[in-house]
Design brief:
418 residues, FAD/NAD(P)-binding domain, seven-stranded mixed β-sheet, 21 strands, 32% helix, elongated
């Protein structure tokens, strides 16, 4: 049986960050990372299209928490201890410089996730942290002398109590992400698991108004409405039309905040889109009537109005029942009303979802009431800690899920070594 001071289960972002910080805090500790797969840091590798969206340029803790549909309240205190500025400094101290893009996302200046992976691997080597791949944890037990783990790499003919094979640790960190098998083990330790549902996804929509518009993007507000038209959820921001429907921050925010509401519908629901954000239908109709007076001979289809993308404007004009050759003078108030309606309250039926790029994020995990967020330690078991998405914490896209991993890993490392 291999004996360690600290075992971290999960070779992802949170696991590595915890291990490196714990080893930095106390160089005498014997630390191991157990990873079930053949490779470590696989999610880091694909993040941000292979560039790794390390964090987000939001430097006020309260504002930062508002990007977490689950975990907003719990992360406020931790973000006062370690957040975006600390993350930037941590990487810069290790030779990794980050840059801020226009939308606030932060990436290494190399635009390569391999930069982050190389940093972590070199730090674990420097600090003598053992990385054990192909070690899927099959059993976790605890007695007065510590934690005992059996992994797939150890087929035990006898019980752990007889001390054959496996691992022993004084302190245990679970940073396994959304792993249902580990969740079952966590339940065996007395913790409650909130079932997982998809959290970041795009909307599948088949609708003639957008079929020919893949690649068109504009700022819009989007509302999820029930059968009576009552608003259940709403968000705004860039909306991207895709080959399968709609994506972009406005849609992804809805999917994150509505993860629990949308799952029971089987992802069949209705949305209303205002292509002008918050401009009312009445104001748009007034403006359209003004166009009718001031440019009567101009063809509607030829010139896009309201700074809408031209292809989108043309699609909405045609959807309002206006022919390609008609001028403003030709259009009745009723049809202008139809156009105003298309612009401000376009109704679409969503029929299914698609994973956002390779970034499959779920809502679900360890019930947050059972965790002490001063240490990210279990309230039910001594010397047991959690970091990253194993907790019922998730965020919208933009680097926020990684920031949760860095913050949790830093605070766990501090608790492990105090």
């Amino acid at each position: 049986m291999k004996d360690f001071d600290i075992i971290i289960v999960g070779g992802g972002a949170a696991g590595f960050f915890t291990a490196i910080n714990a080893a930095e805090n106390n160089r005498t500790l014997k630390i191991a990372i157990l990873e079930r797969g053949k490779e470590v840091l696989t999610k880091v590798k694909v993040s941000g299209g292979g560039r790794c969206n390390v964090t987000h340029a939001e430097f006020i803790p309260k504002e930062l928490t508002q990007n977490y549909p689950r975990g907003e309240k719990e992360l406020l205190g931790p973000f006062h201890s370690f957040m975006t500025g600390d993350t930037i400094a941590w990487f810069e101290q290790r030779g990794v410089v980050l840059k801020i893009e226009e939308d606030g996302r932060m990436f290494p200046v190399t635009d390569s996730s391999q930069t982050i992976i190389d940093c972590f691997i070199s730090e674990t080597a420097r600090l003598g942290i053992e990385i054990l791949k192909n070690h899927s944890v099959k059993d976790i037990q605890r007695n007065e002398s510590g934690w005992f783990l059996t992994t797939s790499a150890h087929v035990l003919p006898e019980a752990l109590a007889e001390g054959q094979g496996g691992f022993k640790a004084d302190k245990l960190v679970l940073a396994t992400g959304s792993n249902p098998k580990v969740w079952k083990l966590i339940e065996s330790l007395g913790h409650s698991i909130i079932p997982a549902v998809p959290s970041l996804f795009t909307f599948n929509i088949k609708d003639g108004r957008i079929t020919e518009l893949p690649g068109v993007s504009t700022d819009a507000s989007v509302k999820v409405v029930d059968a009576r038209g009552a608003v259940q959820l709403e968000s705004e921001g860039p909306l991207l039309i895709t080959h399968w429907g709609m994506s972009g921050p406005a849609i992804l925010k809805l999917s994150a905040w509505g993860a629990r509401i949308l799952e029971p519908t089987g992802y069949k629901f209705s949305i209303k889109v205002n292509w002008l954000l918050d401009v009312s239908e009445e104001k748009v109709l007034d403006q359209l009537m003004d166009f009718k007076d001031t440019q009567p001979k101009q063809t509607l289809l030829k010139y896009a109005q309201f700074e809408l993308p031209k292809r989108l404007w043309q699609s909405l004009v045609l959807a309002a029942g206006i022919d390609a050759s008609e001028t403003w003078a030709d259009i009745s108030k009723k049809r202008l009303h139809n156009l105003a309606n298309q612009i401000t309250t376009s109704h679409f039926d969503v029929d299914g979802k698609s994973t956002f790029k390779e970034e499959f994020v779920t809502a679900g995990g360890i019930d947050l009431k059972e965790v002490n967020f001063k240490t990210f330690g279990s309230r039910l078991q001594d010397n047991l800690y959690f970091a990253g998405e194993v907790l019922n914490i998730d965020a919208i896209t933009g680097g926020f899920n990684f920031q949760n991993a860095w913050t949790g890993g830093y605070i766990v490392a501090k608790a492990l070594t105090e």
